[in-house]
Amino acid sequence: MEIKMKMPQEPKAKVMLWTDINYHEMEKLNKIQSIPALQTALSEVLRIDHSGPKQGILLNLYVQTMLYCREMHFKPVQTSTLLSIIISIHKVNVETVFNNIANCHTYCKELLLCHSVRRPPCSIDLYKLEEVTSIYEYIYNSYMRHYRLYKSVFTPQIKLDLSVTYLDTLDQNVAATSESNDETQDLCLSPTKSEDGLQGKCLFHTSN
After folding, report:
1. What is the pTM (predicted TM-score) of this model?
2. How high does pLDDT run on average in the chain?
3. Which of 7, 68, 87, 138 has minimal Cβ neighbours within 10 Å of its Cβ?
């Protein structure tokens, strides 16, 4: 199976208000207290099939993010935006099989900056400075520290089958073989006189 390998890209950060979860969906999610029920609700809202192991890993990440937002007493718009930030970072991570942790880290910081400084329409002041600091620590501990784990689970494994041919050596072998064949075909002693004065005969001959 041939796999097209995409090279790492440098994504551009943008404001993510209500990108993946709208206001009404967020209100319903905040009313759910049971973790299994929250997983089911998130899988429906984000359209994730939670029957597979990979999807289960993502749902666990999103549920833990919801619980973190509740501990921080975030507003619905803040919780929805943080979930979209984490979803976006994960997409950047798994879009390529190559190591792009530097791009993910830079993208994470740019996304937080977009939601902590008021410069419409490029950025808004959704989070306070202390909240940004806490969010960065949370993303680092919950996702960035496990970057390679998410990469290995959600991207195909690439194996390199390498064979090397040295052209110089190959040319030398071909030339040596050609010279050897020429010498074999021409290897016939010229007539000489023996000690008794008789003319010698050709000792070697080639057969067609």
Report:
1. 0.76
2. 84
3. 7
